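User: Run a structure prediction on this.
Assistant: Running it now.
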Amino acid sequence: MPPRANRRAPMWTRRQLLARAALAGVAVPVLGATGCSTRTPAGSGSGTTQLTIASPDNPVTWPITDDNQPIEDGLAPERNTTLRLYNYADYLAPAVIKAFEEKYDVDVSVSTFNNADEALAKVRSGAVPFDAYFPSYDQIGKLVSAGLIQPLNHNYIPHITDAWPVFTDPWYDGEWRYTVPYAIYTTGIGWRADLVDVDLEAYDNPYDVFWDTKYAGDLAVIDDFHTAMGMALLRNGITDLNTADADQLEVVRTDLLDLTEQTKPKVTITMYNDLPGGQYGLTQMWSGDAVNAQYYLGGGAQKEDLRFWFPDSGKGMVDNDLMVILSTAKSPVLAHHFLDFILEAKNSIANFAWTGYQPPQRSIDPERLVSQGYVPPNLRAAVVREEYFGSGYRLLELPPEVDAAWHQIWQEFKAGG
């Protein structure tokens, strides 16, 4: 069934999480030459612990410790209980939650957060015993090292086979010991063809459009330091989107200050609503928000007016979010069943129809999404392809000193130079 045409405006604050490298209450590693870090455990007073930072070039299989084992096989789902989920705002379809409640005869409670500091502080405190949590992959090392999530019993999650095979051995969680995939997305360029006359193919580099004075005052960039600065790196042919090189960061600084001078972009995360509403005509955009934009059209605009660009080669920013089970879970068996329920193709696609963010489903292909009405033909480029996860560039956790250098540039940019 195609997605409905009318829905309330969601609070898409969840992508701000990508801007946080240091999470409240969890020790942040310092990158060393080997890709490992040394830190002093909280309260230990002495001694060090090695913590590896995962990356595509440095894949990690996290250990399963004696005091944090998977649940046993063959357990029945908990009854007469409430499954507690901790998630980004409006990142789960109400109809899908309702279907799970009816299937297992339980209640589901969804608590939300606005940023990673808030989320991790509450998870670490254990004040509310959430069962499942929806993090991004750059949090997994901290969550495992602090014992905040429990390893999965794969026997309860057979529908992992509905997802792309890469997620059964992802670089950030080898052997998918602690995580299952939730949503995937790319970062590209969105625009309203009825408001701006733009031909990205006319540029040597499509990202140059943001510096084109022709569009001054009529464009926006994502209010996320890593995502916006990553675009400046790609514009200059630098594909290490996690660079610590001072010269490369100076290139970013110069470009961003020039961006302010040339086109004065709006810095926001509400482009899913602002672009279709006509507040501006062109924006840096996540693919899920481009798909979502068709539900927020205003001023006589048609969904055919929407456009999205992402490199056909897949050589752009590619990311994904996850589902995990917390160590504080009161209903760990039911939580396993919930993860499996979301992975099941029919539920996963129904969830996509509401959120606009695509799941990594083997049953999904661009033609199907277009023919069934989930994605308009003019937004076909917003469909995330499996091969992008081999060719795309990832926004990884930054070591503290590198994160500080990035943020200094970002703050100068947001202050207007």
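The chain is about 30% helix and 15% strand.
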